[in-house]
Amino acid sequence: MKLIGMVLVVLFCSSCGLMGAASLRRREGHLKKVQLFLHLLQERLSYTLSPLGEIFDGLRDEPLLRELDFISLCAGKLAGATPFPRAFVESLDESRCALDQRDRELLGELSSILGQSDLENQLRGIRLVRANMLQQAEAAEEVCRSRAKLYSSLGVLSGVAVAVVLL
């Protein structure tokens, strides 16, 4: 009975470590998808000159962007006649993406850029947000590289340590 308890403790701690590592990888992946989102947004804004509602509606259907739920949330709010700045900020707040607070703040800057000035200034603003998000993605990649294995190892080792103490 005691052996089963120790095995369960090791498994629990190991799974906690693996979940921590998966969380780091998920954020890194979402930041890469945000880069794609910003690229596609920039392209569609400059080449189609469509209203933001149509652009977000089209981006919602992009298979590579499905994990970025703030896009579909924003498209829905825009279809309901919510002004873009409010719709975008609310969508970021409601999103379940693995973005941290700083990522959301940087991305939220789009709310004060898009639809507020001429095309060139909007594109310039997207490039600035994109550059800032690229820095976030590079930092997340470094954190993932250095900490993912650490989290996994610490999970297993802490489980083994607790099992030894229980002996």
TrEMBL record:
Q: Which InterPro entries match?
A: Spore_III_AB
Task: State what protein this is by name.
Answer: Stage III sporulation protein AB
Q: What organism is the protein native to? A: Harryflintia acetispora
Q: Name one Pfam family in it.
A: Spore_III_AB
